[in-house]
Amino acid sequence: MHPATLAPTLGVLLAGGLARRMGGGDKPLRTIGGRTILDRAIERLAAQCDGLVLNANGDPARFAETGLPVVADTVEGFAGPLAGVLAGLDWAAANRPEIAFVATLAADTPFVPHDFVARLHAARAEAGTPLACAESGGRTHPTNALWRVDLREDLRRALVVEDMRKIDRWTARHGIAHASWPAEPIDPFFNANTPEDIAEAERLLAGAG
């Protein structure tokens, strides 16, 4: 489904994590099949959205080759993935006021499905909720989700005033739909958290041809 047939949606790749299990560094910049995981995620998400930005903290120059705007967290301290979501919502409100929705994706997700954004919108519309998230193989993926931009001030209050860090607590407040994908033969939301995961991703990529 082409982006023009959906509500205008900004894609936000969440790369703000600390990558402790990978020994530090940026997980999305690790390579599989000769390309970075981030490049693979960008290619798949760009075709589904009306523009992309990258949420990352620290020196933005390390992502210069992507050509994407790099947006740091707008909440002080390492507040977790919700801070990255808020940064994306704030960027959309300031720079793309015509956009009502943001789709976030963990930037270390190389196999994201080509119908990711369309299926989230369909689930949200059917359920009548302002939010939707992905699930596969019976597991939900709270950071791979669709968010309404006009909820950003409530999210800011939850982070700053209520010190809320769990995504599920905040989304339950507003209502969230779920869009499901099969986890076989490849889990589309496989993410590379450890060196072992990188090896597994190489194996999956080889198997997929």
Describe what you observe in this structure.
There is one protein chain. The protein has helices at residues 37-46, 81-95, 116-127, 152-160, 167-174, 195-207; strands spanning 9-14, 31-32, 35-36, 52-55, 70-71, 101-106, 131-136, 139-148, 176-181. It is of the alpha/beta class and 209 residues long. The strands form two sheets. It has a seven-stranded mixed β-sheet with strand order 5-4-1-6-8-7-9, sandwiched between helices. Helix 2 (81-95) runs antiparallel to helix 4. The two termini are 24 Å apart. Residues 18-24 have low confidence and may be disordered.
* Head-to-tail CA distance between termini: 24 Å
Largest beta sheet: strand ordering:
5-4-1-6-8-7-9
Number of strands: 9
Strand count, sense and barrel status of the largest sheet are: 7 strands, mixed
H and E order: EEEHEEHEHEEHHEH
Give the class from helix and strand content and strand pairing: alpha/beta
Helix content: 25-40%
User: In angstroms, what is the radius of gyration?
Assistant: 16 Å
Mean of pLDDT? 87
Count of discrete alpha- or pi-helical segments spanning 4 or more residues = 6
- The proportion of residues in beta strands is 15-25%
List low-confidence stretches.
18-24
Q: Which of globular, elongated, flat, extended, rod-shaped describes the shape?
A: globular
